[in-house]
Each structure stands twice: as C-alpha cells, then as structure tokens.
Amino acid sequence: MTPLHQVILNKDTKINPIWIMRQAGRYLPEFREIRKSNPDFINLCLNESLSSEITLQPLKRFDLDAAIIFSDILMLPYGLTQKVEFEKGFGPKLGEVNIDELSKKGEIDFVEKLYPIYKLIKKVSNDDITKNKNTIGFVGAPWTLLVYMINQQSPKKNLKKDFFKNEFLINRILLILDKFLKIHIKNQIDNGADVIQIFDSWAGLLEEKDLPNYVYSPTLNLVNYVKSLNTPVICFPREIKNYKEFCDIVKPDAVSIDYNVDPKKILNDIKIPIQGGLDPKILLSDKETIKKEATRYLDIFKDHPYIFNLGHGVLPETDPNMFEYMVNTVKNY
Ligand code: 1CP
C-alpha cells in the first residue's frame, strides 16, 4: 500500500507522507522554461506529453509521495464549452454562461475534449517514478466552479453584487456540474488516479446559512460518488469557518486545512485523517523558521493520521532549495 493510502485508509499515525499543492508550477525554473514557449495555458494542459512532463518535474527533484496531475479546475467549464482564458497578471477570464449550450452538452463530446487529461494520467501513473506513490486526480467543488462560471473571473474577496439574482440558473448549472464532475472523476480514476482531491477554494465566501445548499449537499454527492468507486477522497473547503461541521456532514476520507485554522483546535475537533496547514509564506523565510514551523505541525499531529502539505498552493516566488529543505525536514522527522 502507498504511504498516502496507509494514512487515509489504515489511519497510520507512524508515517507522514508529503505532497504539496501546486508542487508542479511556477516556482520551478524547468516549468517556467516550458511555459515560456507555451503561452496558451489551456493548450498546455491539453498537451499530454508536456503536462505529464510537468507533473513529474517535482518528483524528479524532491522525495514526494504523490504526483498531482498538471491540469486545472477550470478545464471542466472549458469542457462544457464555456470560454476560458488565462491572462498574464490577471488570472482566469471566462465567457458568459450559455445555459442552453451547457444543457445540450453530451458525455462523448465532453470526454473527447478533455481526453488529453486522461492520457496524461495514464502516462503518469504508469511511469516508474510513481511506483509506490499516488497519482492524485482532482476537480473543483461545484460551488467553486459555479463562482468562476458566474463571476467570470476570480472573486478574490468579493462576488458580483447580483451573484445570487438568478437562482433558477444557478440550480440548473449545479445539476449540470454534478453530472459532468462525476464523468470527469470516473475517467480520471479509470486512467490511474488513485486519490481524488476536491478543491473548494471559495467555500469561505459563503455565509453559514448558504453552506447546506451550495457546499454540503453538492459536495456530499460527489464524495459519495468517489467512495462508490473505491477511491479515497480528500476535501479542501478552504477558509470554511466550521471544518468540524463540514466533516460531520460531508464525511470525506481526509480533510485538507488552510493556514488560518488553529491546528490544535482542529486536532481536538476532527477525527478523520488531516492534511496540510502550513502557511506557504513560511517557505519565503529562512531554514530555521521552516524547520520550526514544519516540526510544529508534525508534533501536533504526531498521534493523528496526518499528510504533510501546505495550507494553500506553494507561492511562485518560493526558492526550490527551501522547498527541498521542507521536504527533507518532514522526511527526517
Ligand atoms: O503559469 C501560469 O500562469 C499558470 C498558473 C496556473 C497553474 C500552474 C494556473 C492558473 N493553474 C495551474 C495549475 C493547477 N491549478 C494545479 C496543478 C497541479 C499542482 O497543484 O501542482 C491545480 C491543482 C490547480 C487547481 C486550481 N486552479 C484551483 C484550486 C486550488 C487553489 O489554488 O485554490 C483554482 C482556484 C484554480 C483556478 C486558477 N487557475 C490558475 C489560476 C491562477 C487560478 C486561481 C485564480 C484565482 O486566484 O482565482
């Protein structure tokens, strides 16, 4: 069994596997080199020879326990024919939702559009370098995808003022998302993904009263679906105020925590395996601080099943040497 599966499924507390959100990406010079000659981000994600190479870049450098596929949560709206572009210095830019077109979208057409992602997963999971390591597939949670689809750009701190104006439209989109997220998850697993992470990056934007409709119900549906395919599922409901309530209701196999939560309180509240937490900004400091902070998380979770990770993605300005120092600190703990 892989170290990640041992922690998630067997609740092993003796090992601390490590992988890092955005481990394949802009802090690595070898990624920036490829990116320079591939200005279209979507096309890069759909080039399975390059996207598999990028996925494996961090594993060639560091002693990590999993590969996370180089892709994006916004490939799903792209597969549903919504226009998606990534602009330098701005982030994602989406076209307007055309609900009639979304409703007409068929499974075969969708899978055909995203096929290179499944080929990338097959390549990565069959590569010698991922032997006894996991290949992590992922999706955006329905709520976070809805945010990008309606808002048409990153919400940063705020949603469009009239975001909830058309409830009927929102509910139709959520139904379509449920259908195609399941198709996307199934194809990832069929091609070799052996852990699924659900990113709900904007869960923290909602008021408590809206969580059942937009986060708990749709995520629970997906979690149950992944479980039915005998694959462990990790949820990351970033900046949600009540992780305990989320876990009690949605019951993922493991939960990833952000850097604003108090790890000691989480340890008290939550019984399932926990992942992450360390502030990515720590990697911009010095070795002494990195060691102290990484060790603090490992100490707190020493008798709890714990997967080491950050509380959000690694920052582009991170020095790969500091990243390596963090990985080695965890491995030598
Ligand atoms: O080079 C570039 O400019 C592209 C930057 C980039 C990268 C490297 C984007 C655009 N996406 C990615 C890859 C990516 N996205 C991965 C790769 C695997 C890995 O982790 O190594 C993953 C898992 C994602 C997931 C993702 N995309 C999320 C969820 C996690 C999170 O960061 O909260 C979100 C919200 C996105 C949307 C997105 N895609 C890209 C950007 C810059 C964003 C965020 C924009 C925003 O702040 O709203």
Give a structural overview.
It contains 14 helices and nine strands. It has helices at 3-10, 29-36, 41-45, 48-61, 75-79, 99-104, 107-126, 142-151, 167-190, 211-228, 243-250, 263-269, 287-300, 320-331; strands at residues 66-68, 84-87, 91-94, 134-140, 195-199, 233-236, 254-257, 274-276, 306-307. Strands 1-4-5-6-7-8-9 form a seven-stranded parallel β-sheet, sandwiched between helices. Helix 11 (243-250) links the parallel strand 6 (233-236) and strand 7. The two termini are 21 Å apart. The model has no long low-confidence stretch (mean pLDDT 97). Residues 21-26, 35, 41, 68, 70, 72-74, 86, 91-92, 138, 154, 199, 201, 313 line the site of coproporphyrinogen I.
